[in-house]
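Title: Prediction job returns without error message
Component: structure pipeline
Severity: low
Priority: P3
Assignee: unassigned

Description:
Job completed but the reporter wants confirmation the result is attached to the right record. Sequence as submitted:
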Amino acid sequence: MDVQEPKTYEVRTYGCQMNVHDSERLSGLLEGAGYVRAPEGSDGDADVVVFNTCAVRENADNRLYGNLGRLAPMKSKRPGMQIAVGGCLAQKDRDTIVKKAPWVDVVFGTHNIGKLPVLLERARVQEEAQVEIAESLEAFPSTLPTRRESAYAAWVSISVGCNNTCTFCIVPALRGKEKDRRTGDILAEIEALVGEGVSEITLLGQNVNAYGSDIGDREAFSKLLRACGQIEGLERVRFTSPHPRDFTDDVIAAMAETPNVMPQLHMPLQSGSDTVLKAMRRSYRQDRYLGIIEKVRAAIPHAAITTDIIVGFPGETEEDFEQTMHVVREARFTQAFTFQYSKRPGTPAATMEGQIPKEVVQARYERLVALQEEISWDENKKQVGRTLELMVAEGEGRKDGATHRLSGRAPDNRLVHFTKPDEEVRPGDVVTVEITYAAPHHLLAEGQVLKVRRTRAGDAWEKRNAAEAAKPAGVMLGLPKIGMPAPLPVATGSGCGCD
């Protein structure tokens, strides 16, 4: 009797960290249903292709329909191939997707990702598209199976949804009101991950430091950070993204007093102008924001602070923009993720008067980027001569092969390329190096590695890779479901709900 080959799948992810984490869940669900991951570079040549979409950019739908259009002829030549669309754009557009792309088999929303395997099977049996959009969360995503992407660090979701009403952001309408996860469940997941070899976790939420608001405990987030400090074997704790409104002194104290909470903070600014902040419906002003930065630097002198900024919000004057430049000079961010304002259909800002001409926005954007590049370089130069412990990273140094270097992350999340030592070093292991050179976006340690510490995280990476090498490409192994999110805060985007 012939053995039927398992069906393959591919998940394509757009958007913020929440989408990246949701895609880990979607992969876990599909593998639990018997699918195997398609080899790298399949580019749609899979039995099931899932688009996990984002709705925060003006051209998000054009990007989706362009990709769907490219798959249409492929699907017509491949009997049984299925295409699914989920995420924020699916939640927003619903039936429109099937009308514009009738070859799509399944449309599901942000609240019911756990239904994907069932919907795929129903579409196959009934031979018609299945559109199912839940209006509220059916199950907290962390209760779903997961195929994590790496072996030494992991996202841990502590809340979903957002209670803010920023005028540039549509995500609260798509992800719903904030819903917090039980603290005991969060800590149990972290302990299980550490037991599997994970040594770094990132606490994740649309507004992570508002955690506890639905139970009336304003100090719940700082208590959670301190509880993470009690977990043996957990070496690094990060979180993203907080909101200045909810960033209280007890959180700063918990960061400073909990050794495994890293000296890193991603604090979205969006604008330095009080007038623009009010129009954005951001519930803080310049003084409040700079006051937080000052307190963090006083409590954690070596903290690296990054941010998100929107340039060209409707009504932004040259004076308003200069206020943003002022905050950037005062705050001296390690890095700023700067975005030109683009309309998000369905948001109040999209129909505001005073939309800024493209050429004006571009000119301001270039000035801001130039200023931040100068500051980033100056701040990185201060690292030269310091001795740092790096967690060795996987796939973060694009030129490592050519330069005979490896790459890792410092405690403050700076990217460091270092000379490859004679002894074996694995992702998840820890090395001690001296910084010799600084560039605006990375550091170099060109001398010999001072110390190598092999870790349980490195053991987990080695075990996972050895097992994957022994299996056919794309097959999930039943190994610990552990992994590393994309380097923070690369995946952030202004207005995507994580800020």
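Comment from assignee: result matches the submitted record. The radius of gyration is 23 Å.
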